[in-house]
Amino acid sequence: MNVSLRTRRVAVTGGGGFLGSWVVDGLRARGCEPFAPPSTDHDLLAPDGPERFVAEARPEIVLHLAGVVGGIGANRANPGRFFYDNLMMGARLIEASRRAGVGKFVAVGTVCAYPERAPVPFREEDLWNGYPESTNAPYGVAKRALLVQLQAYREQYGFNGIYLLPVNLYGPRDNFDLESSHVIPALIRKCVEARRAAEPAVTCWGTGEATREFLYVADCAEAILEAAERYDGAEPINLGSGREIRIKELARMIAERTAFRGELIWDPSRPDGQPRRALDVSRARERLGFVAATSLEQGLTRTIEWFEQAHPAARPPQRRS
What we know:
α5 links the parallel β3 and β4. 48% of the residues are buried. A 5-stranded parallel sheet has the order 1-2-3-4-8, sandwiched between helices. Strands 5-7-9 form a 3-stranded mixed sheet. Helix content is 41%, strand content 14%. The protein is globular, with a radius of gyration of 20 Å. It has one domain: Rossmann fold, CATH 3.40.50.720. By secondary structure, the chain is α/β, with parallel strands linked by helices.
């Protein structure tokens, strides 16, 4: 059943984060002022965190976007934390929402939940045909468990929970910290800083032979809102752009758009992660009418422009007379 978000009380977890901030913008563009407090005001891992969040928000719809996320390095350094925090935040918030009579719960999962050797493009039916790739398996399994919970709650309690599987996201406001960022923001930062410092080379992780699919963050936010308005099914839905690209080609595109003219050096001692990662997005097109509007070329250009403006080169110290 189609609903108008403008007339509903909508609560957003992670509304101050990368994806969450775009979802909040999308809600406001629809005329909805969501309940989206800073995470410092509502710790979902606190003993009464989920219950307090739901009690204060009194939502008809919950969009659960909060999570502990990062690139390959962050996942390898924090497997226990990534598993526990993501599982407990989601599971307890779903239970609190059910108890409070929330009408609809939208959980945002991850492409990392797919098996390492799933046939490409990944189809939603393949989600359980193997274990996730080892560098992000704890995170992927924790997120995958929330789908089980939502389907079980639908069966036993009639709880309307839907589950979305976005591919790798990128765009303005992303995390550009090299210790925890994903591949696109990491490459953008490395190339921009190397250009500014006139460095001759940039070192990139892995062999560059792995492939990925990327979705511009504003497009993902729109898909989430369309799902909240239009979809009430138990089956998960992939969200992606439908374009697979080798990391080496991606790095060349970023170097060109950042005007970095040096060499790209690949460090095979660093992990590539999953060999291939791309989604079958036909279900999103059929059930949501969603097709990504932003090409990779457009999205990279916008993201680089944002980074250059948000992180200007340091000015040299003023000389004193």
